[in-house]
Prior knowledge:
The protein is of the alpha+beta class. It has five helices and 22 strands. Strand 2 (about 85) and strand 3 form a beta hairpin.
Amino acid sequence: MRSKSFLLLHIALLPLYITLAFYLDLIPQPIVLNLSGLLRLSKANLLKHRIFAAPLSLYSASISNEAANMSSLKYIPRRSEERGNADHGWLKTFHTFSFAMYQDYNHEQYGPLRVINEDRVAPRTGFGTHSHREFEIFSYVVAGELEHKDSMGNTEILKRGALQLTSAGTGISHSEKAHGSSQVHFLQIWSVPSTPRLQPKYYTRQFTDAQKTNNWVRVVAPIDAKGVSDARDAEGPAPVHSALTLYATLLEKGKKLEQPLSGKKGYVHVVQTSGFNPGNAKGATIRVGGELELKEGDGAYVAVGSGGATFVLENMGEQIAEVLLFDLE
């Protein structure tokens, strides 16, 4: 009995052991990422023995398994009011996935997609210099101006329509602050590259409202995809080293769009353009797949059949809807 308790104690500490090894560079990141299944197993075993209780409906795994035998898209909504959120005064933020003090085993990662934070930063405040490595981090500016500075020597003021992407690779430091007299509203998105220890790189792209109005615009895509440039400033989507493609649109009242999905899964997010609202979602209203209605701040996990399928988006409300669609492996 004593040996069983000793074993269960070490299983409980397994995530801590792996985290320490990761930050001390004792094991490469791909190994850490591939251990996600082992971590989930350890959590399940601990639940069985009542060491701690936590919800473990693993969306990524369940959707992928369900999709294997499907020919049409299926959706699991992620409602805005269910996201993690915080109001720090200078920062008002939402977290779609576990981040900082918000932790939810149901919403940790989806394919290579690790973070979707919707941030509003007050004027002349922001995130001071801090470090990243391995993740590829992109900022999608909705309103205001975002000032970016980094250890690679890049300094830039990003305005609405800008897409800035940093491939952190072996390590970078940067700061992000609201520039000027207005708050900045942007989405910061992190993806996990399929190749570890990349050379850090910086990219910016600009996409106009006119381009996105009633059209899907590819703003991020795999580096080896057609039409993708590895140049710092270029036309077309910013490059990532993972099976992730991000589309953006501004969909007007009564309009409908379709987009074939080539990956095994997808995620859709409606930008909360009408203002910070931690309560029930309001504002622009869309319908996906002819069945699920989403409002500002809402999102949905999308299961794609093995043969691929077409994502259908309709604007059912009175306001223009700004929508992001991720096509993922």
